[in-house]
């Protein structure tokens, strides 16, 4: 994923499915370095992690 797409996702009200190593995550914030983001897993876990933007993938809609 690219930093511009992260910014679009963060400013969108849509529920955009993003994965980190095949695990569905929410993007919480773009970090100041512009290369990492704070994410947390979807579901009851509130555990947060800092991950590289390049390791995120946007799930494409399946028709």
From TrEMBL:
InterPro entries: SASP_SspH (IPR012610). GO terms for biological process: asexual sporulation; sporulation resulting in formation of a cellular spore. Pfam families: SspH (PF08141). The keyword rRNA-binding does not apply. GO terms for cellular component: endospore-forming forespore. Belongs to the SspH family. This is Small acid-soluble spore protein H (Minor). It comes from Scopulibacillus darangshiensis.
